[in-house]
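Researcher: Next entry in the queue.
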Amino acid sequence: MLVVGLISGTSADGIEAAVVELGGAPPMLTWRLLKRQHASFAPALRDEILACFRPEHGTVDRLCALNFQIGEAFARAALDVIASAGLRADQVDLIGSHGQTLWHIPAGVDASTLQLGEAAVIAERTGVTTVSNFRTRDMAAGGQGAPLVPLLDVLLLSHATLTRAAQNIGGIGNVTYLPPTNVHHRDAEVAEKNQNNSPRSLRLRGETIPFAFDTGPGNMLMDYAASRATNGALSFDRDGVLAARGRVDDTILRELMQEPFLREKPPKTTGRELFGAQYGAPMWERAKTRGLRDEDIVATLTAFTAHSIAQAYRDFLPQIPDEVIVSGGGALNPVLMQMLRDLLAPARVTTSDELGLPSEAKEAIAFAVLAYETWFQRAGNVPAATGARHPVILGNITPGDIPISHLHDQTSNLTESHNPRSETIDTLDTLDIVRVMNYEEERVAHAVAAEMKSIAQAIDEIAERMKRAGRLIYIGAGTSGRLGVLDAAECPPTFSTSPDQIIALIAGGARAITQAVEGAEDDADAGARDIAALDVSERDSVVGIAASGRTPYVLGGMREAKRRGAFVASVACNRPAPIEEHANVSIAVLVGPEVIAGSTRLKAGSAQKMVLNMLSTGVMVQLGKTFGNLMVDVQATNAKLRERARRIVAQACNVSLEEADALLAQCDGQVKTAIVVALVHVSPGEARRRLQDAGGAVRGALTKT
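Model: Structure for this entry, 705 residues:
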């Protein structure tokens, strides 16, 4: 999906715009930045924005006009970045626009927020459906409406073993604390935290979870000082040149560090309402009365930003991180970066650019991601960052030229859509064809990972029913049906299941396994009849497999299975899709458009095979069909499997192959019985009794008496 992200930060110096290709779903979101650029506001527009930041100037009539003027500027920025990416507007699926924050009251009885940049103007000028007004829903849920970028930090900047802090330095500074991923959860359970707890106790099942807050001033006060120092010639301290010439005044720095906001406990957010010109002007005058040069004031305010960040880390983070990853305009200021390195040592202070995430594009990418999440009806806030009571879907959707229903059809039928990466595949040499296909297949595992919870839930439901003599029944058509047949056929030799325990139904019957049967997949009644013929009941589990999520044969079978009380799961590669309406658990592996449009034997087939592997293997493990990772229920029906059986016994019992042969001979070739005989030192008859009492599980039989 192609999404444009737009934002103007608290510095109000212009619009950051990014075109991003997005796929999959958290926690395994896939992304690729196609283009990023900055669009400066026209001087008159910026002057009006800065004027309206002052409550005495921001009258209703001026704000009304400014809302549309900013909307026009955002629309132009979107069209420009789309064209720079070599695209047309009608190729873009969605725009996510944060707009320009004019006023923000984060807490209290008057908690509210105002972002300007009319979404209707953006949608009308570009023709692209636009998601906007992201902050308000979080605030309605008890949050402070910011920071919202932590979702991106968690998804893209977390590390398996390192503790990281993602420090954004825009007009305001904000940090996301990122514990190692191998010791925290990234899901919506963070909302269950008691928001009155301090960040030091933000724990989930004993594990630290990500959280975020505003650290204090970022570039805003430095920009103010740079402008005054140069009589408006500079809007910011480019490359930290002014700060490098100045000297930090320790007395004024100590005064600044007494700012009450710095002592407030997170979650907390701030903005121009506190650290705007009304803060900088009196500080400038105090500094001048002390005889400071202009460059000294810039240097002192640069130090204020650095020290406020370091103080926030010491006061509110569970520990000083291993790495600090800086993004935003502050990452381009070498003086500020060196101050951070000195104050945060031994932490490694670097920029997000070094990790492949352009520092100046990060927030625009974030709002592209948030719009994408909103479109797919997934929560976009991180309650541990904003203080919201629970995760919420953010933003308002304003339709573009393409009706929303059509866009839903387009985004919910990904398997049939156009893949820009392979549009010239017929002109590529053989190696490049392979490269393109391999690149696309790499997305499959990530897309499957995003559905792991649903897959695990389905495994538990199926296993529980199979323990009560229930059956697992796959139903599909075409490639999807053949994959079901393949998985069902492999279970008897692998796990010693009977052929009627795991069954596969395919539209068109057995003939459809090797050749296409025209029209078979369109017969919903045939699907229902095939389920009825198996006398499906509440003990059974039916898994509908359809890449498109809309195959009539599969839908008919699932509908009948659900009517009969069976557990029903769906496996598709589109969402939303009709198949989900008939499923107790839906698994949607969003692998994106195929290399050959509509050829779902490719990525969709790979994804479905992975899911079926997980379903059948997970169920068989729960049914005791393995001992460790050994295939102890193997049926030794040929020479290869007989050799495998003797190796399994030898490995499980730590005996030689010759001893394994003797054990198998003693136990009539039964691998499980041979293992129990060897490890518990009982007779084959006693081993069989133990296995029966343990439900066939070797590990249970070893402890039975």
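Model: Residues 444-622 form a domain with the Rossmann fold fold (CATH 3.40.50.10490).
Researcher: Noted, moving on.
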